[in-house]
Amino acid sequence: MKPSRNGAEVIVLGSGLGGLIAGAVLAKNNHSVLLLKEKGYQFTYPLRGYRFEPFSNFSEKRLRPSLLKKISESLNLSLTQAREEGEQARTSFNRSRSAAGFQVILPKARIDILPARSLFEKEWKREFPKEVGRVEEFYKELDQIQNLFKRVSGKSDPPSYFPLQRRSFITSFFSFDPFPKEKMGKKLQPFSREFREFIQLQLISWGNLYSDRFPVSLAAPILFNEANGSNPDLDLGRLEREILNEFLKYGGRIEEIDRVKKVDWAWRKGITLLLEGNPRAFGARSLILNSPLHRISSVMGKRTKELSKWQKKIKPLYVMIPLFFGIREKVVPVGMKDLLISILDLEKPYDDGNVLFLSLSAKGDETRAPEGKRALTVESLMIAEKWGQTLLIDYQEGVMKHLYHLFPFLENYIEFVDSKWTSDHVPKWSYPHFLYEPASDFYWKEAIIPTRMTRNIYFVGKENFPSWGLAGEIFSGLTVAQQIMKQYP
Question: pTM value?
Answer without folding.
Answer: 0.90
